[in-house]
């Protein structure tokens, strides 16, 4: 499950952390970005919301094309106008340059396809029930996934097999 970007990144073997950290840092919510590191720091994740399902599908198609070009794919799930994306490398496990590059590319594509960025008030409305502050935080830009989308991706990954192992 996702957590805040307060976690330390865990880079995949063979990666150059010194070269990757500046680009990673600019993506994280703690630095004004919209991505969070997962617990353990082995993945970047966030959700994208669009006005319609058609826009969401167009965004996903554009991301899929880049995945084919870069030979790397996300863990993702979609419900109506919201897509949850997690970038990680499975073998060797951790964050790689491709994960960071494709996360940044997702941000660009989302902007091109008209991502809806909900602005939340600083204070919850007075009529909001107890616990509403936590619910509101979950809906803020850069917050963790809602509606179980992250869990859906987790379940799919568990049954997907070794996707990052080179084919023989």
From TrEMBL:
Region: Disordered, residue numbers: 119-144
Pfam families per the UniProt record, alphabetical: Pterin_4a
Keyword set, alphabetical order: Lyase
Ranges of Low complexity composition bias in the record: 129-144
Reactions mediated catalytically: (4aS,6R)-4a-hydroxy-L-erythro-5,6,7,8-tetrahydrobiopterin = (6R)-L-erythro-6,7-dihydrobiopterin + H2O
GO molecular function, one term: 4-alpha-hydroxytetrahydrobiopterin dehydratase activity
Keyword NAD: no
InterPro entries xrefs: PCD_sf, Pterin_deHydtase
GO BP field: tetrahydrobiopterin biosynthetic process
Protein family: Belongs to the pterin-4-alpha-carbinolamine dehydratase family.
Protein name: 4a-hydroxytetrahydrobiopterin dehydratase
